[in-house]
Design a protein that fits this description.
- It contains 1 helix and 11 strands, in the order βββββββββαββ.
- By secondary structure, the chain is mainly beta.
- A hairpin with a 4-residue loop joins β7 and β8.
- The termini are far apart.
Length: 129
Amino acid sequence: QVQLVESGGGLAQPGGSLRLSCAASGGTFSRYAMGWFRQAPGKEREFVAGINYIGGSTAYPDSVKGRFTISRDNAKNTLYLQMDSLKPEDTALYFCAKGREPWYPRYSDYTRMNNYDYWGQGTQVTVSS
C-alpha cells in the first residue's frame, strides 16, 4: 500500500517562499510520474505541477509557471515543490499524488486527477501579511 505524506506547509508572506516535501513509502516511487494539486476553501482541486518518473519532464499551469518548481529525489523517495514569489491566491491545502504511469505524453494528462491513484492528506499553505 502506497503512502504519501506531505510536509513543509505553513504561513508565508506575499513574495516569500516555501518548500513542500512529499515522502513516499510502500511502493516503487521511482517508476511513476508524480503531481502536486491544491484546493482552496470553496473551490475545486486544481493541478499545480507534474513530473515524470525520472524528473526529466515537468508540467505547470500558467498560474504558477516561473514561480513554482517541482523536483524529485528517487533515492530518497521524495517529491518536492519549491514555491517562490508566493501570492495570497496560492493559499490552499496542497496534495501530492502518485501517477498511474511513468510519464504522460500531454500536459492535459498531468492535470487529470483520474490519472493519479494515491493521494496524501495534504499540507496547508497560507500566504498572508
